[in-house]
Automatic annotation (TrEMBL):
CDD domains: MFS_MefA_like. GO terms for cellular component: plasma membrane. Pfam families: MFS_1 (PF07690). It is found in: Cell membrane. InterPro entries: Bacilysin_exporter_BacE_put, MFS, MFS_trans_sf. Signal peptide: none annotated. Keywords: Cell membrane, Membrane, Transmembrane, Transmembrane helix. It is a multi-pass membrane protein. This is MFS transporter. One of its GO terms (molecular function) is transmembrane transporter activity. The chain crosses the membrane at residues 21-41, 47-68, 105-126, 219-241, 253-274, 281-299, 305-322, 342-361, 373-391.
């Protein structure tokens, strides 16, 4: 499906318009919060408590959000989640405007509400796409969404910095709240296909059903184990990149250039995913993921700033192409009545693995020289991205128009061409 065909679908236009502005708005909250807390006399301790409360809320709510997104029409969950986030961010703005220096407990509670609602939103967002896009257009839709998100992640921090610097943190919070409300209004107008009702059971039982869906498909659990391995290394790498670029390659200016290069790489990856749609999508997704270790290799070889930027661009393009292929595989290869629960497990594994890597960054950097550590990270990422190619169902998964039934799975499943050996 071409981009023009995709944009001719009313619901796709509404979703992209709503989410594009919402993603730009997402950049306002952390910047406004950091500035507001520091200017009101707080510091790293207060910010740490606030951010930690958001992390804990997301951990607690992710699997529950997946269950509810499978129980209820996904776009209804998205509307409620957006309205809750609009209210909590708006309340944060009111707290700073009225109190000047609101209690940390209040800010932490509001951050928990915002993050918890976000944990409900994402699984529903994944589950919604097959309901508004024909099966053959899913990869194009995922690619367009990734391209738009990369664009917003480039523009959002710049706009947020300008607004907060010029007008203060309260207007910054207000902008974020308004973008959540805008997203809710757009999603509320969607005419997503209805799905058959599912029999509800106990929450824990439904969570286990999502895990069982993963375990029944070799390509799926393989991909999630690979993601966990990859994100532990990413957690270490993210910390080292910022320290190394600032210390050795030119300070904040250099870090800004590297960040911009990664943003451009994300745009390139999204564009490539729109144009290049091989039949064996998961095979080529993992091949593209093998490009990412080039980024830590640039530091291992003590490359200059321009080398780091160039390889970072290529690496990010490969990562975005992988992400589009993976999301498409999950959306086409998992029964829709369990899709959100599978997506929530996917999010949880990555969300847990990243901070583990963050914690390991300090001890590892104290024990190993930066080039050696970067080389080790590159090797680990290459292993994490390539070993799934040894699994037959990863190599054999193809683009298709349907999902397997809830009772089929493993390498032998051949559901409506979604999983079939070429």
């Amino acid at each position: 499906m071409t981009l023009r065909d995709l944009m001719s679908i009313r619901d796709v236009r509404l979703l992209l318009v709503g989410q594009g502005l919402s993603w730009v708005g997402d950049a306002f909250n952390p910047i406004a919060l950091s500035v507001a807390v520091v200017l009101s006399g707080g510091g790293a301790g207060e910010l740490g408590i606030i951010f930690a409360s958001g992390v804990v809320a997301r951990l607690l709510c992710t699997l529950v959000g997946g269950v509810w997104a499978d129980r209820v029409t996904p776009h209804r969950i998205m509307v409620v989640a957006d309205l809750v986030r609009a209210a909590s961010v708006g309340a944060t703005a009111v707290a700073f405007a009225a109190l000047g220096d609101p209690p940390v407990a209040v800010l932490a509670g509001l951050a928990a509400v915002t993050s918890g609602a976000g944990a409900f939103f994402f699984p529903a967002f994944v589950s919604l796409r097959p309901l508004i896009v024909p099966g053959e257009g899913l990869q194009s839709a995922n690619a367009a969404i990734s391209f738009l998100q990369s664009s917003a992640q480039m523009a959002g921090p710049v706009l947020a910095g300008v607004v907060v610097a010029a007008f203060g943190s309260v207007p910054g919070f207000a902008v974020n709240a308004l973008t959540f409300a805008w997203s809710a209004a757009c999603v509320a107008r969607l005419r997503a296909r209805s799905v058959p009702g599912v029999t509800r059971s106990r929450m824990l039982t439904e969570v286990r059903e999502g895990l069982g869906e993963i375990r029944s498909r070799d390509w799926l659990w393989t991909g999630l184990v690979s993601a966990g391995m990859f994100h532990v290394a990413s957690g270490v790498f993210v910390v080292l990149v910022e320290v190394t670029v600032v210390r050795d390659l030119g300070g904040a200016h250099a870090l800004g250039l590297v960040t911009a290069a990664l943003g451009v790489g994300g745009l390139v990856g999204g564009l490539v995913a729109l144009r290049v749609q091989p039949r064996r999508m998961l095979l080529w997704a993992f091949v593209s993921l093998a490009l990412f270790p080039l980024f830590p290799v640039a530091f291992a070889w003590s490359g200059g700033l321009w080398t780091v930027m160039a390889l970072g661009l290529v690496a990010q393009a490969g990562l975005l192409y992988f992400d589009v292929g993976w999301q498409t595989a999950v959306q086409q290869g998992v029964p829709h009545d369990r899709l959100a629960r599978v997506a929530s497990w996917d999010v949880l594994i990555s969300f847990v693995a990243l901070p583990v890597g963050n914690v390991l960054a300090g001890p590892l950097s104290g024990r190993f020289a930066t080039p050696d550590l970067m080389g080790g990270i590159a090797a680990w990422m290459l292993l994490a991205g390539c070993w799934p190619l040894l699994v037959r169902s990863v190599r054999g998964l193809t683009r298709g128009g349907g999902a397997p039934s809830a009772t089929t799975g493993g390498e032998g499943a051949q559901p409506s061409a979604a999983i079939a050996a070429s």
